[in-house]
Amino acid sequence: MVIIRSENTSSSKACPSALPCWPLCCEIGKMRLLVASLLGLIILTACSTPTPAATPQIITVHYTFSTRPLLADLYSCAANLPGIILQAEERHASFLDPMSADLILRLGAPPRLDTPAYALGTDELILITNPSNPVASLTDDQAASLFRGRIRNWSEVGGADMPVEVWAYAKGEDLQQALQAALLDNAPSTPLAHIAFTPEEMAAGVTSHPGAIGFLPRGLLSGSVRPVTLEGRTASLLPTLAIVREEPQGSLRALLACMQEKVR
Q1: What is the CATH number of domain 57-122+239-263?
Q2: pLDDT of 200-253, one tens digit each?
């Protein structure tokens, strides 16, 4: 006898007929739901727009060797201002151009200044000699005559009988321009002067030549040379300038404000 059994239609919808047991069928359903949820999460993640990171502002700084003492304050200010990256480069003053950098640091004003400039502080120009030289002070006229080559022996200004060796910086350097403006009525030093390209070379040259005379900013004065006092003259103070191509805004303005606070 053949017995025909009717199938449960509700069961056939929940589980395929090839699957004889309910527990396995339900697990498969759960897996399908999990896969669908994961696919939805992946799609949402792919479609969401990430928040872009803030682009740092690069500030290029060109500075002369006479303004090296300012670098510590410059980097300290930049570190306290988020989003600033400094690119600093030392250059000879004759190669400084406000159009090629965001910020220029130099000692004293250039012969021509067509863009905004801000005073960060002051430094002092100091005449120096070899430590063995007994001459401790000079008048303005004596100092000018020494650098012009008109006085050629230290005995003419109360020193030992030895020739004078003048040390100067290259033409166009901010320190050289400062000396010429303060002491030489903007005339050049003697053409026989030894040329130093850095303050280190100036100090080394004066230290190694007993009859040498040169000059440094007070901020770079070393113990290897002897400072000379100029009689009857107040300190030859020079402004340390920050020169920009246009009125500073944003991060550059904040950087300059911080520098003015620190240097003063």
Answers
A1: 3.40.190.10
A2: 999 999 999 999 999 999 989 988 999 999 987 656 788 999 999 999 999 999
Tens of pLDDT, residues 11-56:
444 444 443 444 444 455 555 544 455 455 445 455 555 655 568 8
Lookup: tokens for 54: 């803030």
Domains of the chain, by residue range, sit at: 57-122+239-263, 123-238
**What tokens were used for 82?**
């988020």
**Cβ-proximal residues to 12 (8 Å cutoff; 6+ apart), any chain:** none
Are 57-122+239-263 and 123-238 equal in CATH topology? yes
Q: Which CATH number describes the domain made up of 123-238?
A: 3.40.190.10
